[in-house]
Amino acid sequence: MLALRSRRVVTPEGTRPATVVVDGERIAAVEPHDVPFERGRVEDLGELALLPGLVDTHVHLNEPGRTEWEGFSTATAAAAAGGITTLVDMPLNCIPATTSVDALTKKRRAAEGQLVVDVGFYGGVIPGNADHLEPLIDAGVLGFKAFLIESGVDELPHVGAADLRIALPKLAARGVPLLAHCELDLGAPSPSDPRRYRDYLASRPRAWEEAAIALLAELGEATGARVHVVHLACADALGLVAEARARGVKLSVETCPHYLSFEAETIPDGDPRFKCAPPIRERDQREGLWRGLREGLVDFVVSDHSPCAPALKRMAEGDVAGAWGGIAGLQLGLSATHTEASARGFSLDAIARWMCDAPARFVGLAKKGRIEPGFDADLVAFDPEARFAVDRRAILHRHDLTPYEGLTLRGAVRATWLRGERAYDARVGSWSFSRVRGRILA
């Protein structure tokens, strides 16, 4: 048995001094801080906070097919270093896309023997694959992703309202969520200067997100399905969310650390590292997302880690318009979110709700996301006061291009345990990974 003792254990009842007793893979008890313990090894973390392992339900792992962009081994190592113990992989950017059981089988085979943390999978909804949805549910996918606009890759074409009217009743009957990229192309000017960030921002206006969310809410109301807005950037749309929930629509919302950290007004021209879709919006939208978290209209925070091969970022040309749209930040999400959250008076309890408990509940992982007896012993030792400058040489993603480079972040992961086994430790003078292997979640 293992006992982890800390002055700041983040539990569902609040942060308090406690001793977390681990028996095998599960948390056996949460005892008083100074309780005598003679049944195994005690590790005293002192003032380091002990959080549940993060559950990141929006990650693009890209393997098989585009492993040169990212892969299971690199992404899961970066996750462990960032305090994340569970990932859920999106169905696109890999080849084939996860739109059939055969494709899911290929992805699971590619993951075998490579995982540092646990990994689950989503299926994809595309035109014409309605007959594949229930077999994918039976095979263990945790939800389905769809695009209401071009996805950027040929393997996952976007759907229209007619496609969703066929798919959503099937998902509703089985209780699994639809996750939608909520932009509808209503027309907008193409960037006149491919290097200018403001031009790119204007090419994907707020109205695109609002229109898509209105459509999604309408379809959710008509079918009774669980519908989920991924990576919300437009806080103006939260009024639509509140109205839909008041009508009984099962509508949930996530946002991402980059939308909570950056603002369009200060993004430099000619730096495609900041490009994503929907785009990072203005300061008022960032602050609106923080209000949404405070008020419960935004349910949780996940990375949308979406890297690519460096050449596709077009850094040499500074071509924002032509670059691949995706932010690499898996390893840094906890620290980035804590940096901005603590500056606004939020506690570690709020971080644990947004990044551990709520995403675990969203995908039905009933034994993850909390420090509570019976839950998986997925744990993170976190130093909330530590400050560090982001150095690309320390990044474990396959590629080190990230908009966080050079920023000073507050809060550092010191160690990560997966089901009671140490998966990562930064306290030994150099980063250390154990032989513990993550599991594929059914």
* Unreliable runs: none
Question: How many structurally independent domains?
Answer: 1
What is Rg?
Answer: 21 Å
Can you give the helix content as a percent range?
Answer: 25-40%
Give structural attributes.
442 residues; TIM Barrel; 22% strand; globular
Fold blueprint:
Blueprint: E1 2-11, E2 14-23, E3 26-31, E4 41-44, E5 49-52, E6 54-59, H1 72-81, E7 84-89, H2 101-111, E8 118-121, E9 123-124, H3 130-138, E10 144-147, H4 161-174, E11 178-181, H5 197-203, H6 206-223, E12 227-229, H7 238-246, E13 251-255, H8 257-261, H9 283-295, E14 300-301, H10 333-343, H11 348-362, E15 379-389, E16 408-418, E17 421-425, E18 432-433
Parallel strand pairs: 1-4, 1-5, 6-7, 7-8, 9-10, 10-11, 11-12, 12-13, 13-14
Antiparallel strand pairs: 1-2, 2-3, 5-15, 15-16, 16-17, 17-18
Helix pairs in contact: 3-4, 4-6
General description of the model:
There is one protein chain. 28% of the residues lie in helices and 22% in strands. The chain has one domain (53-362): Metal-dependent hydrolases (TIM Barrel, Alpha-Beta Barrel), CATH 3.20.20. Strands 1, 2, 3, 4, 5, 15, 16, 17 and 18 form a 9-stranded mixed β-sheet that branches. The mean pLDDT is 97. The chain is of the alpha/beta class and 442 residues long.
Short description:
The protein is an alpha/beta fold and 442 residues long. Helix content is 28%, strand content 22%.
